[in-house]
Amino acid sequence: MGHVNGTDFYRRLGDKIDNLTCRSPWNKALHAILSELYTTNEADVIVRMPYGLSNLARLQKVTKYESSQLQKILYDLCSKGLVMDFWIKEEYYYMPSPMAIGIFELTMMRTGDNLDTKKWAALLHEYWQGDDSFWAANFKHGEQISFARTLPHEEAIKKSDYVEVLDYEKAVALIEDSNKFGIGLCSCRHEKYHVGEKKCDVPLNTCSSFGRIAAYVIWHNFAKEVSKTQMLENLARSKEMRLVLNADNVQKNITFMCHCCKCCCNLLSGINKFGYANTVVTSSFIAETADHLCKGCGKCAKACPTNAIKMEPTENVKLHEKKPMTDISFCLGCGVCAFECASGARKLIKREKRVIHPETTFERVILQCLERGTLQNQIFDNPDSITQQFMRGFLGGFLKLSSVKKTLMSDLLRSLFLNSMKKGIQMQGRGWLTKI
C-alpha cells in the first residue's frame, strides 16, 4: 500500500494518540507537532495500528501494508521514538507512542546530525506550556494514576522503629535490581535549553532507564549504555544538586528514573504552573517540621520543588519569627527540603493515607486508561474490526459513568477488577502482558 486515503491525515493521527494511555487534546500546536514529526505514510500506519502491543504478522494483517514497506516504516518510526518496539517471546512487538511517556521525551532525547531540535523544542514547549489543555485533559477531574511517582531521598527520612522503606521506594535498590542501564538527555531540560528557559546548571545527560526500556533507548540511540557504577554516580550527583527523583509509577520492573529540577521539569510545571497536584504521584512520605529545632530561616521553602512550603508567623517568639507550613496536597515527599535544613528540623515521615502505586506496568496502564476513558481501546484494540469498534463504543460509554469509575478504582474493588482483567488477558493467550 503506497498511498494514504483521507483528507486530514494528522487529525486522524491526533485522535489516535489522544486515545492511548494519556489524553492529548487536539489544537493547533498538536497539529504542528504531528505534521513536523510524521510523514503521511507514517501517520497512516499509526492510525491503522492496534492500540496495544502487536507483532509484525498482526500489524501486516491489520494495516494491510506489504511486509517490506511496513517494516521500513516501522523502523523509521522506532528510530524517531514514535513507535516503541520490544523483544518479547523471541520476536518484536510494536506499539504507538503516546504523547507521554513517548513522543515528547523520545523526540527531545534524539541525538545525531541534521536534527531540527530547536524547532521541535519550540513546538513541544508550546503544546505543554502554552495553556493547561494537556494537564486538564489528564488531571482536571482528580485523576490519581500518573505515569510517574516521586522517590523519597532516604537520607531525609526520620529514623524510627516504625518506619519501613520498601525496596521499590529506594532509588539505590531500583538500580541494584536491574541489569541493563541507559543514560540519555533529559527531555525537559533539553527542551528548556533550546527555548531559553533553562536556569539551572544541571547537566543535560541525566535521564536514567532500566531493563526493557533501556534496551529500547540504547538500540535506537536515544541513550548510551552505562554500568551500574555509572548509574549510582549519576544518582549521587543528583542528590548533591538537590534534584527530585521521579520514577516509573510501578512497584516491579521499573523502566525509568527522572532527575528533576524545578525550573525545567514539565511534570513539576503541571503542579507549579497549572495547579494539578497529581501530575506526579507522591511518595509514601510527607515532610514534617520539628518546631523546637527550626530556626525559621526559610531555606526549606526556597528549596521546595512544588512551592508547597510557606513561611508563616509563629506565636512562639522564643523560637523564631516564622515557621514553615506545608500544604500536604502539594508536598511530593521528595525530601529536598530536608537537605537544605541545617538544623535537622525537616524530615520525612510516613503519610497517614495509603498511596496507590500499581504493581506492574500492566496494572498502571489499566488504571490510568480507566481514569482517562480509554480503557476500551486497550481491551478491543483493533481499529480495523467493525465488531471491536462497536464494543469500544459500548464499553467506553459504560466506563464514562463516574459512578462506575469510582467503584472500580475503590480500595474495595480495585484488586478484584485488576484480577479480572488479568484473567481475561490470559484467556486470550497473552498472559505475558500481565508480567510487564
Walk me through the structure.
- It is globular, with a radius of gyration of 22 Å.
- The two termini are 33 Å apart.
- The strands form four sheets. The protein has a six-stranded antiparallel β-sheet with strand order 4-8-9-6-5-7. The chain has a three-stranded antiparallel β-sheet with strand order 1-3-2.
- The chain is an alpha+beta fold.
- The protein has 20 helices and 13 strands.
- The chain is 43% helix and 14% strand.
- It has helices at residues 9-18, 28-37, 40-48, 56-63, 67-79, 99-109, 117-129, 133-139, 171-176, 187-194, 211-219, 228-240, 266-272, 299-303, 336-339, 361-372, 375-379, 386-399, 402-409, 414-427; strands at 54-55, 83-88, 91-96, 148-151, 181-185, 205-210, 223-226, 244-248, 256-260, 285-289, 309-313, 322-326, 346-350.
- Strand 11 and strand 12 (322-326) form a beta hairpin.
- The protein folds into four domains: 9-97, Arc Repressor Mutant, subunit A, CATH 1.10.10; 138-152 and 159-278, no CATH class; 285-350, Alpha-Beta Plaits (2-Layer Sandwich); 363-435, no CATH class.
- The relative contact order is 0.11.
Q: How many separate structural domains? A: 4
Major sheet strand order: 4-8-9-6-5-7
Rg to the nearest angstrom?
Answer: 22 Å
Major sheet description: 6 strands, antiparallel
Please estimate the helix content.
40-55%
Low-confidence stretches: 1-7
What is the strand content?
Answer: 5-15%
Q: What is the SS-derived class?
A: alpha+beta
How would you sum up the global shape?
A: globular
The number of helical runs is 20
Alpha-carbon distance between the two ends: 33 Å
Give the overall pLDDT as a whole number. 90
Tally of DSSP β-strands: 13
